[in-house]
Write a structure and sequence with these properties.
Layout: E1 3-5, E2 8-11, H1 15-26, E3 33-36, E4 53-54, H2 61-75, H3 77-81, E5 97-101, H4 103-118, E6 123-126, H5 128-134, E7 145-149, E8 153-154, H6 157-170, E9 174-176, E10 180-185, E11 191-195, E12 200-203, E13 205-208, H7 214-220, E14 227-239, E15 249-251, E16 256-261, E17 264-269, H8 283-297, E18 304-317, E19 325-327, E20 340-343, H9 351-356
Parallel strand pairs: 1-12, 2-3, 2-13, 3-9, 5-15, 13-20
Antiparallel strand pairs: 4-8, 5-7, 6-7, 10-11, 11-12, 14-17, 14-18, 15-16, 16-17, 19-20
Amino acid sequence: MNSKHADLLIVGGGVIGSSIAYHLLNAGYEGKVIVFEKDRKYEYSSTPRSAGGIRQLFTTKVNIELSQYSLYVYKNFQETMKFDGFDPEIDLKQRGYLFLGTDEMMSKFEEHLKLQHQLGVNSEILDKAGLLKRIPELNVKDIAGGIYCRESGYLDPYSVMQGYIKNAKRLGAEYVYDEVADLVLDEVFQNGVKMTNGDTYYAPIVINSAGAWASQLSQQAGYPLPVVSLPRRVFQFDTEVPLQNPLPLTMDPTGVYFRHEGEHFISGYAEDYVPSMDFSWKRQDFIENIWPIIGHRVGPFEQLKLQSGWTGLYDHNTEDHNAIIGEHPEAKGTTLPLGLVDTACNKLQQSEEACRN
């Protein structure tokens, strides 16, 4: 067992942790930064398993502004992050983001539109004719309209993550591919992490950006977070009849979403699953819970072929569904002089401004 020291420890090397490391070092931070990631191949990391949606159609000022900055960064990501031998292509598709609404939902959309316009979001209310102009195959019989932002869309989250990892390493961040067993304090009140192999690393600041695993680590250290891990299934399918236009990322009133994925389509929904670390997915889930909805909504989806699926973990804040950023309130003062910083924000669309600051 060895003891090692650094200036900053980051637990979790996905898009959040790697973005933090990059932004600090790119801003001139001269301290030693170590990033811990237990999944070297990122096989079960939440970042590459997400649907990659980028939107500005939020209902609070802070969420809108976070996402606006992220969109700005992603539009310039390739130029900003490329260096000798590395040219990241994140496949940003600004095909729009669309929420479909019933009669009851349209008044809320109108309220949201006012705030979005105040903050410079290019959103608009669409009537049925406007919806059909964008998705001619859409069934609008039971919907009144929608709210749409043409500048939003989706991207390849894995490529974004790799862009930050490679640039963080280029700037001097050290990546340790091993599992953190505990967030710890020693007898002289140093912050640190203990590894499963027995090694301990110490630093004035520990950032817990472990995503779906963040709450468990914080709880073990005696600093609970109101965060649970929820499985989110994504299903990929093909249709016999192609659609006329590329789809915006479209959210049905039921909560089911769908979009293009290259020449394929993906769909999913926010299931009411019990919190778990379950990475399984079942065809029956798609057949029973998603296909009836998307088949009703888009004509060609009535005849489709399910090709594959996957599951990612969503770190869900049970208090208000928003990101948790900053020093833990119970880790202040003399016990933890510089505190433990917790981030429970796995939202790709808000990561840029959150991590930069």
